[in-house]
Design goal:
The complex is a heterodimer of chains A (372) and B (484). Chain A has helices at residues 6-14, 24-29, 37-45, 49-55, 66-95, 112-128, 183-206, 238-250, 254-259, 281-289, 299-302, 306-316, 324-329, 336-344, 354-371, and strands at 103-106, 135-138, 142-146, 149-153, 157-162, 165-171, 217-223, 230-236. Chain A is α/β, with parallel strands linked by helices. Chain A has a six-stranded mixed beta sheet with strand order 1-2-5-6-7-8, with helices on both faces. A two-stranded antiparallel ribbon of chain A has the order 3-4. In chain A, a hairpin with a 6-residue loop joins β7 (217-223) and β8 (230-236). The longest helix of chain A has 30 residues, at 66-95. Chain A is globular. Chain B is an alpha+beta fold and 484 residues long. Chain B has two domains: 8-304, no CATH class; 347-443, Elongation Factor Tu (Ef-tu), domain 3. Chain B contains 14 helices and 17 strands. The longest helix of chain B has 27 residues, at 245-271. Chain B is globular, with a radius of gyration of 26 Å. Residues 1-5 and 445-472 of chain B have low confidence and may be disordered. Bound molecules: iron/sulfur cluster. Residues 33, 36, 38-39, 293-295, 299, 303, 305-306, 309 of chain A line the site of iron/sulfur cluster (SF4).
Chain lengths: 372, 484
């Protein structure tokens, strides 16, 4: 081990590839697979997982249709038009607040390197002054400690503040039809909003304010029915917050994860002059394999590296491939060959496996009986 | 519908599939009804929109698919024209089944007319069902008159699509099936249930083994309703911009044709299985429900409400739970491989009869009762207490009771369904050497009237429409709702 500190080692892991701030998907997925060392390290280092997956020949299946993007942009600009007039109308109704007029700060207009400092200053001022008229902060740059490391969050949200109380406002383009929306989409939005609530609370706390000035009720703005008209709904994200907090604390800190790894380990893509990666693919794959993954089918919707990790799980014959339910059902028997060996009786159960082995043998007997 | 229940037997089948590189059966009979000439329906929607149709391929004959395309997807009027075209195919198909009916007598209620046969819609996946429901929602409140008139078949189509979409959620119903869900109920692939939602991938596992091509949208475009984002960007968007209806049509045909072939392959696979014993009975309920819906439309009932009221919702939930329980019991009775799940958990056992006492009696004098005894030798781990009441798939009308279970020998006594004489009716008591199965899993399906109770059934499932009408009468605003 050399004398490098954690930050230096993380920088080395990322190498010359420019760091990537966390986008919406990464943020929503932060708590999805907390046991995965590979992702914790890549996210911690700000490595570009998407570029890495493409270079490895396993591009992530997360393309977005231009129609969906256009629709999303049209809807967002509609909500934000005329200094967020439409948004204000909805907030007034939803929160029952006498909001006369509010200031609008688009933090994005500030240079990137200043954005976080600027966000801090703005929020600090607002939290201090309870008499302040309402303010909307668009594109605030927040940070969150993930696995002992500061991650920047690039939210497509608005923070709304009135009288020292903050609400996170999330604009999504999935429709709410007759008061109901796609549960998976709502759940993802709530998980994502919880990350912002936590980040904003953390910021307030750091600034010496009461973190509970940030409401756990987030404002979700979606198109209603089949039209473009927006509708705002309050979503209580307390549950998501609790899960997120628990999982973030459970994530081992990055220095611990780095401990067993060689100093020269790097996920560097060695971008050439044109920005294209020049790192030999086999070498990059090797580097990734040095870190432990924890593949689950959920990765297919949350992590850029999913096809690479699924391929690895296939080669290892891991029962993880079949999903958590199967995994749970197998009670800790991790490999396909092992489980089938126990079922066939070709393998003796290890200590603690007697019960699952008995069940598997019985299941195998029953399947044979019924299928012959 | 929903993800087939995960059990250790299914998990084991998935492991085996993964190991052998081919899907494994998890059912020995077919648990859904499959009619000849089902209406295969593959809808596509415009990405980013809730329910904007793009195209559909549909038809009842595999060599004659109809392709309906919204030739300019951003044009709202063309969406309604498309819906009218769709109505032109679906409504006559539905109407085919309205003429021939049978009169069904009911206890305590007027007899009613039930269609002798019913339509069947098959879509690729659960998302196809959800989209069908949304299409129904976005069209059923329209009006043929007023400020935003639509062709008059459109609201009628909307009501039927809503009906089919809702009925698909009813456990055991076969009026609308999702191919991936039905395949997944009969075969375990070596991938996760999440990945099973990909029709090409699941069929690959069942027929030839997994292949990466199934996930390559250039080889197997997604089975809808969402299109491949790459296709949207590189093919569809330029085609739309070109304004050429022909180019758009051909682009969409290229996305639908592969799925069309897969759909019929899925139907062939399911048709290759013999139908389970209770399938006809569930289809009969489907026919009753279908007739109820047709009748409520004929009687001028309003379109389905936007949302169920609290009472209706609670009643529906209770009904669905009962249907789910009944469906599970029926599947187990119909299929030894499903029953095996219950044998594994000790709620059922099977084995060979090694001894019988057919003329065993209990009690004295007038209360003397015939209670034949059967001793079964089993390898199953029986976890049933003495006195547990039992049923058996081999003799469905029969009731039995567990007397004792010990060391692989189980004694049961038959309490019902062996005749009223001094000796049991011939065949009522299994012979020594016969293989039998007994289970604590019972359902009143054996003797129950196979008709839904009209008063307790909402009009969507064949009941009276009156209370629903009160909850929401669609108004002009509904009819003019934007579809942009
Ligand atoms: S895809 Fe791989 S790196 Fe990403 S979370 Fe899953 S296992 Fe970890």
């Amino acid at each position: 081990m050399s004398g490098m500190n954690t930050q230096q080692r993380l920088d080395a892991l990322r190498g010359a590839t420019p760091p990537r701030p966390h986008d919406a998907r990464a943020i929503a997925a932060l708590a999805a697979n907390p046991g995965c060392t590979r992702r914790a390290l890549m996210d911690g280092a700000g490595a570009d997982k998407d570029a890495a997956a493409r270079h490895l020949g396993f591009p992530a299946p997360f393309g977005q249709s231009p129609f969906a993007i256009t629709r999303g942009n049209v809807f967002e600009s509609l909500v934000k038009a005329d200094g967020c007039a439409e948004l204000l109308r909805m907030l007034r109704e939803l929160l029952g607040l006498p909001i006369a007029e509010v200031a609008y700060h688009d933090v994005e207009n500030v240079g990137a390197h200043l954005r976080h400092a600027h966000t801090r200053a703005l929020i600090d001022r607002a939290a201090r002054d309870a008499q302040d008229a309402g303010t909307l902060y668009d594109h605030p740059l927040l940070t969150l400690r993930i696995a002992g490391h500061t991650a920047y969050l690039e939210p497509d949200v608005v923070a709304f503040q009135l009288g020292g109380r903050f609400h996170i406002v999330e604009i999504k383009s999935f429709a709410v039809i007759d008061g109901q929306a796609d549960p998976a989409a709502v759940a993802a939005a709530a998980r994502q909003a919880a990350v912002y609530v936590l980040a904003l609370r953390t910021l307030l706390e750091e600034l010496g304010h009461d973190p509970l000035q940030v409401s756990h009720d987030v404002v979700l703005v979606c198109p209603e029915n089949f039209a473009n008209r927006p509708v705002a709904t309050l979503v209580d994200v307390r549950k998501q917050l609790a899960v997120l907090r628990r999982q973030l604390t459970r994530m081992t800190t990055l220095d611990r994860l780095l401990e067993g790894l060689p100093d020269d380990l790097t996920f560097d893509l060695l971008p050439g002059e044109d920005g294209r990666p020049t790192r030999p693919v086999a070498e990059l794959a090797d580097a990734l394999r040095r870190t432990t993954a924890r593949y689950a089918p959920d990765c297919l919707s949350t992590c850029d590296l999913c096809f690479f990790c699924r391929d690895e799980a296939r080669q290892e014959g891991a029962s993880d491939l079949l999903g958590r339910q199967v995994r749970d059902e197998l009670g800790g028997v991790g490999s396909v060959a092992e489980a089938l060996g126990l079922a066939d009786g070709a393998r003796d159960p290890a200590a603690g496996q007697e019960e699952i082995a008995r069940l598997l043998r019985n299941a195998e007997r029953l399947r044979r009986e019924c299928l012959t | 519908m929903g993800v087939p229940g995960v059990s250790l037997l299914t998990s084991l089948a998935r492991l085996r599939a993964l190991d052998e590189g081919i899907a494994q059966p998890i059912a020995t009979v077919r648990h859904c009804h499959l009619r000849d000439q089902p209406m295969v329906f593959i809808p596509l929607k415009l990405s980013g929109e809730a329910a904007a149709p793009l195209a559909a391929m549909l038809g009842t004959e595999r060599d004659r698919p109809r392709l309906l395309v919204v030739s300019q997807p951003r044009n709202r009027d063309l969406r309604f024209a498309w819906a009218a075209e769709l109505a032109g195919v679906l409504l006559p198909y539905i109407a085919r089944f309205l003429a021939d009916t049978e009169t069904v007598e009911r206890r305590g209620a007027d007899p009613y007319e039930r269609a002798l046969d019913a339509p069947q819609l098959i879509v690729p996946n659960a998302a196809g069902v959800a989209f069908t429901r949304l299409l129904g929602r976005s069209t059923r409140f329209r009006r043929a008159d007023g400020p935003y008139p639509v062709p008059d078949v459109v609201p009628l189509l909307g009501r039927w699509l809503t009906y089919f979409g809702e009925r698909a959620a009813y456990p055991g119903s076969s009026l609308m099936l999702a191919a991936t869900e039905e395949l997944g109920r009969h075969w375990a692939s070596g991938q996760s249930s999440l990945e099973d939602a990909n029709l090409a991938a699941l069929l690959g596992w069942i027929t030839e083994g997994p292949s990466d091509a199934a996930e390559d949208p250039l080889i197997w475009p997604p089975a809808g309703p969402a299109t491949d984002p790459g296709f949207d960007a590189e093919v569809l968007a330029p085609a739309i911009d070109s304004g050429s209806a022909e180019r758009i049509t051909e682009a969409l045909r290229s996305q639908l044709e592969p799925t069309w072939r897969l759909m019929w392959q899925a139907i062939d696979l399911l048709a290759g299985l013999e139908a389970g014993a209770s399938v006809a009975q569930r289809w009969e309920q489907d026919r009753g429900s279908f007739s109820g819906m047709a009748q409520s439309i004929a009687e001028g009932a309003p379109p389905q409400a936007r949302r169920d009221g609290a009472i209706a919702a609670a009643a529906k939930l209770a009904r669905m739970e009962r249907a789910q329980a009944g469906y599970e019991v029926q599947r187990a009775y119909d299929d030894p491989l499903i029953m095996a799940e219950y044998r594994l958990t000790g709620e059922a056992f099977a084995g060979e009869v090694i001894e019988t006492v057919p003329d065993n009696v209990e009690g004295e004098g007038r209360s003397r009762k015939l209670r034949p005894l059967v001793v079964i030798k089993t390898d199953d781990p029986v976890r049933l207490p003495p006195g547990a009441s039992l049923g058996t798939p081999q003799r469905r009308g029969q009731g039995a009771e567990l007397v004792s279970a010990d060391e692989g020998l189980v004694t049961v006594k038959i309490t019902k369904g062996m005749g009223r004489g001094k000796t049991p009716t011939p065949g009522a008591v299994p012979e020594v050497g016969e293989r039998v199965c007994y289970t604590s899993l019972t359902d009143d399906f054996q003797g129950s009237p196979n008709l839904p109770d009209a008063e307790a059934t909402p009009w969507t499932h064949g009941g009276p429409p009156q209370h629903h009408a009160a909850e929401h009468t669609p108004d002009d605003e509904d009819a003019q709702e934007e579809w942009s």
